[in-house]
Input
Amino acid sequence: MAAVIRNSTKRAPTAIAMMNMGGPSTLDEVQGFLTNLFTDPEIIPMGPVQNVVGPYVAKRRTPKIRDQYAAIGGGSPILKWTNIQGEAMCKLLDEMRPESAPHKHYVFFRYANPLTEVSLKQMKEDGVERAIAFSQYPQWSCTTSGSSMNHLWRELDRLKMTDNFKWSLIDRWNTHPGYVKAVANRVRQGLEQFAPEDRDKVIVMFSAHSVPMNVVNRGDSYTKEIASTTEHVMKELGLKNAHILSWQSKVGYLPWMGPSTSNVIKGFGEQGKKHVLAVPIAFTSDHIETLFEIDIEYAEEAHEVGITHFKRCPSLNDEPVLFQAMADIVKDHLDTNSLHSPQYPLNCPGCTNPMCRTIKNPISPYSKLL
Output
């Protein structure tokens, strides 16, 4: 019956906009990706010189980053995994909620193809009226989810599509039971890489993408939400293992959230620790931070400091529990006619961006908390 619904219906699809950073699918896309990244003031603020300095920094960094993508196969797999996850989620949704079928996912990447503009035009061509902006960052940050959503509202204005779609948001899902269970499943699979007699002594090292301390001090909730996810996962696991939360991928010279993953590895090596499992906690699929930074750079650092058993658990990628969790999240969102999470209307105490916490053409009346 689900296949009949998906293929025979004439109704416009319910659009699920899967919003993420994206990544270059080929080496030729690396410079464009970096240029888009370094000219976004919401993730890497540079002040009034952003549009001049950003492209310069991107060009300077391109050779190094190209080499990194070459080392992992010539491009990021994030588009592949996003499509696999989206298709599986929508297939489940068509079975679980036929009244809003067909459901169709659209990839909304912030810095790589397919960009927001492309997917909005495809939604219009498909006759979409109802759309859900589903952040693929389970933990909210103004630098990631916020940047993607603010860009969506700007693009709707620029393309004169503000009235084309009625929007609601899934802006965070960091402690959803299905998501927590999916991560826990991957941690268990990661622990199976160690000898049975060693598993209880393995340190579970959750590694999240770091953020600048000025973002944290502004009141951004990301670090709190990451920490909450890790505690929920450890409770779900019910294991004896010690765990720690570390932070990776710092850019530039300003202070960022710590301890850095690199320093944690070095510290454990100096203490004589031998068994460490890296768990990428802020990512729903493999990309450069898992395949190069953890698998190559951090693995080499671990070897150099005497950590003889350094492993990474599999990323969520094609985890069936994740597919079900995403479908459950969307179904509950539609069933309850939700517009956003309770936290979304609350600006960070130090926010200076008037675009933050906007919703254009919402499904129900909306206002920021004043």
Notes: The beta strands are 14-20, 103-109, 130-135, 166-170, 203-209, 243-248, 275-280, 309-312.
